[in-house]
Amino acid sequence: QRMVCPRCNRPVTDRHGICRHCRENAFQCRLCRNINYENLDAFLCNECGYCKHARFDYTLVCRPSFSVEPINSEEDKDKAVQAVERESENAHKCFEQIL
Hints:
The protein is mostly helical. The protein is 25% helix and 4% strand. It has a two-stranded antiparallel ribbon with strand order 1-2. Strand 1 (3-4) and strand 2 form a beta hairpin. The longest helix is centred in the last third of the chain and has 25 residues, at 74-98.
């Protein structure tokens, strides 16, 4: 894949990722300038989550609900966390079925 300088958008041919024109490192994130040394060709920035290949938009639609039980103890908290995990797994299974 062709490397492009995040500063001047010119092709970078140096194997170390240094742009000949502006001397910027092409392996750095365009948003936060972090360099992921563990995976130089990562899909997402490990610092800020920026992606140079795609854009992710999330929309949450919610409404107030008055049919909830109050969490007053650690046991209640554990039950609530288990319920959230169970519903998350169900949502993930439904999502996989769609694909």
